[in-house]
Amino acid sequence: MPKFLSLCGAVRPTSARKTLLLAFAVALAGLSVGCSSPPASDAPESPHRNAQGFRNPSGVQVEKPLGDLLRWQWEKWRDGLPKAARQPTPQQAPDLAFLQANARAGAQMQPALTWIGHASTLVQASGLNVLTDPMFSQRAFMVQWLGPQRQQPPGLTLAQLPRIDVVLISHNHYDHLDRASVQALAAQAGGSPLFLVPLGLKAWMLEQGITRVEELDWWQERRVAGVDFTLTPVQHWSARGLSDHNHSLWGGWAVLGPDFHWYFSGDTGYSADFVATRQHLAARQAPALGGGFDLALIAIGAYAPRWFMKEQHVDPGEAVQVHLDLGAKRSIGVHWGTFLLSDEALDQPPLDLTRAREARGLNEADFSVMALGETRRMPKRTSGTPSAP
Ligand code: ZN
Ligand code: ZN
After folding, report:
1. How many angstroms does the Cα of residue 106 sit away from the middle of ligand 2?
2. How far is the CA of 105 from the centre of ligand 1 (A)?
């Protein structure tokens, strides 16, 4: 059956270009019919892959028929969605002096999270400066003259970053894996960061001239300077073109250092993967390290309409359940406020998050959002007093 999914939300039409872009979406969808080819025979082997590509652990297929894509695009156009945001995403000047000093603090580094925008964050913890899904470009698409356009500038520019040790990529959708951004990072002063990517993406990185890259399957881990990075399963999919559907893996990242445990969801629908992640890591960690997370970065945007998005993107209510499943001490909502990928207004996710949080008896300290450029400092975990398993 012909299948087509949005490229993480597909093309977001604006005003006069709606018709043109709808036609583009239709054409793209039409081209996809029969174009999805099996992975090359030299693609990495994995128990999570069959002849058609990688599969979700849940067995849930996120693929939608072509008719569903057309229905979504039609209804979006008919209803004038998404509505304009009532207010811009909050933005503040970054605390560059702290970020730079903390970057060089080694074992004295204070755990700190800075929201750059969308799923891009800088996490400083356990002596490492780590970036998630770095995206600094104007458009999240294969070309820079079409596709979802950035609505707010990044909270940090590439030039303002401290030297990055590790870059984590969750999957290859354009709003998460941006060619110009990863190439710029690979060329940073002092040498390229280590890029950790899901299985099947190393070849693409090498094609971009990025050689300091390692690819991981779900549950595989890589230790960097005493910090364990584990790729964990989530429910999503991958594609950058018309013939590479699910040829590379997708996932979340669990990062366990001696004094801070954090998690990054990437893109995901709701599934049993978060309970499994907590149990898996609790079982294999030394008891003193415990099984919970000090911080979880959970995607809360790109969820409307639910009938189209539910299998691939959690809504804020489901994100709160993810927070609980992970046993996170605190969570921050990301993947919102930056690109228009779906039918909810740009500022709707935090409003829905507040309602969902209150419905579960949680407060703002448990699960909140940040301003672009904001840095939030967090306490180190105390050895011997693990989080709840
Ligand atoms: Zn995304
Ligand atoms: Zn995605």
Report:
1. 33
2. 32
